[in-house]
Design brief:
The mean pLDDT is 97. It is globular and about 65 Å long. It is built from 7 helices and 20 strands. It has helices at 14-19, 39-48, 123-133, 156-164, 208-216, 226-235, 269-278; strands at 9-10, 23-27, 30-35, 50-54, 59-64, 88-94, 100-110, 113-118, 138-141, 146-152, 176-181, 184-189, 198-204, 221-223, 282-289, 300-303, 306-317, 322-330, 339-344, 347-354. The chain has a 6-stranded mixed β-sheet. A 6-stranded antiparallel β-barrel has the order 15-18-17-16-19-20. A 5-stranded antiparallel β-sheet has the order 6-7-8-5-9, with helices on one face. By secondary structure, the chain is an alpha+beta fold. The longest helix has 11 residues, at 123-133. The protein has 3 domains: 9-55 and 144-235, Probable tRNA modification gtpase trme, domain 1 (Gyrase A, domain 2), CATH 3.30.1360; 59-141, Aminomethyltransferase beta-barrel domains (Alpha-Beta Plaits), CATH 3.30.70; 281-354, Aminomethyltransferase beta-barrel domains (Elongation Factor Tu (Ef-tu), domain 3, Beta Barrel).
Length: 366
């Protein structure tokens, strides 16, 4: 295993990954495990058992103050004030043009306390943007002190309940509990990025190696890298920031307007309303290909012999037995069933626009 760039950040579990023989690679400015046993094997283990992911590279900000008076309520495409304590909500931080600065989740800890969880590569910029828009309250970047593990798969409830107690077994989707774990305060949330039943665990960074080892001691649990995570999320149609979403793309173009509350004010709302009235020029599509070949990011999408868009994510799906992908095309070619050609150099794949999710047989709602 070759050494990576010394400028990359590392998680508190870096030595654990190396001891397990993980293939390490750069991701969002971090040195992260891509695979251990293999992407397909780790994918299958998550779909059938319980996979453990190191997600310590994600960013976490803690806000304390009056949600409305501070301006926090106008920052996102959803209402923070309307989130009940003990629940979380997904949505967007936008720029004035309606472009997605980041997609994120807000956890409502108390009436005047919330945690904002953001993507790794965008975390520094996100913090600056949020802080610059606030008119009150206190925002602290707790990313360095906070670790995050994701335990995902149909066996995850049984595994984690044995450690955290039966209160976990009754936890509904997108709700969380605060508890004492390994002698320190922790948050366990029933959320994830795989389409399977699963949990995200936040705890002090100093304790994450102990929890990692404790979870891996259970025979139902195996470590999984970002390769399997990417495959799992794409099979259920979840977008990846930096590939499927960016600050030049609006939620309307991405087909994610369901996460935009137009009944409230937020930065970028005027631009979205204007785009909504005019109609979007391009749309994100999902597609399957007629072979086991995987379409790749950057491949051209063509129709009638001309290029109409580009692939943003693509993999071979073990659950479907064919290549699947997402990308952006001219809006008049986004209808379900539209025949397309995906190509790059000598690779030519026949594709058909389909609905999401590609795979709906997971244990997510179990």
């Amino acid at each position: 295993m070759s050494d990576l760039d010394d400028s990359l950040s590392v998680t508190p579990l870096n030595s654990q990954h190396r001891a397990l023989g993980a293939l390490m690679a750069p991701f969002g400015g971090w040195e992260m495990p891509i695979q251990y046993e293999g992407i397909i094997a780790e994918h299958r283990w998550c779909r059938e058992q319980a996979a453990l992911f190191d997600i310590c590279h994600m960013g976490e900000f803690l806000f304390k103050g009056d949600i409305r008076a501070s301006g926090l309520e106008e920052l996102f495409t959803f209402s923070v004030a309307a989130i009940p304590v003990g629940r979380s909500k997904y949505g967007f931080l936008l720029n004035e043009q309606g472009g997605i600065i980041d997609d994120l989740i807000v956890f409502r800890f108390a009436e005047q306390e919330a945690m904002i969880v953001v993507n790794a590569a965008t975390a520094p910029h996100d913090f600056q943007v949020i802080r610059s828009r606030l008119t009150g309250g206190n925002l602290v970047n707790i990313s360095a002190a906070t670790a995050k593990l994701d335990l995902q798969g149909p066996q995850s409830r049984g595994v984690l309940s044995a450690i955290c107690g039966e209160q976990l077994a009754q936890l509904p989707y997108f709700r969380f509990i605060s508890l004492d774990l390994l002698g320190v305060p922790a948050v366990v949330s029933r959320t994830g990025y795989t389409g399977e039943l699963g949990y995200e665990i936040f705890l002090p960074a100093a304790k994450v190696a102990e929890l990692w080892q404790l979870l891996l001691a259970d025979p139902r649990v195996k470590p999984a890298g970002l390769g399997a995570r990417d495959l799992l999320r794409l099979e259920v149609g979840y977008s990846l920031y930096g590939s499927d979403l960016d600050d030049q793309t609006t939620p309307l173009e991405a087909g994610l307007e369901g996460f935009v509350n137009f009944d409230k004010d937020f930065v970028g709302k005027a631009a979205l309303l204007q785009q909504q009235a005019a109609g979007v020029a391009r749309r994100k599509i999902a597609f399957t290909v007629s072979s086991r070949r995987a379409p790749r990011h950057g491949y051209q999408i063509q129709a009638d012999g001309r290029t109409i868009g580009e692939v943003t994510s693509g993999v071979f799906s073990p659950m479907l037995g064919c290549g699947i992908g997402m990308g952006y095309v001219q809006a008049d070619h986004a209808a379900l069933g539209t025949a397309l050609t995906v190509c790059q150099d000598r690779v030519t794949l026949e594709a058909t626009v389909c609905s999401l999710p590609f795979y709906s047989g997971g244990s997510l709602r179990s």
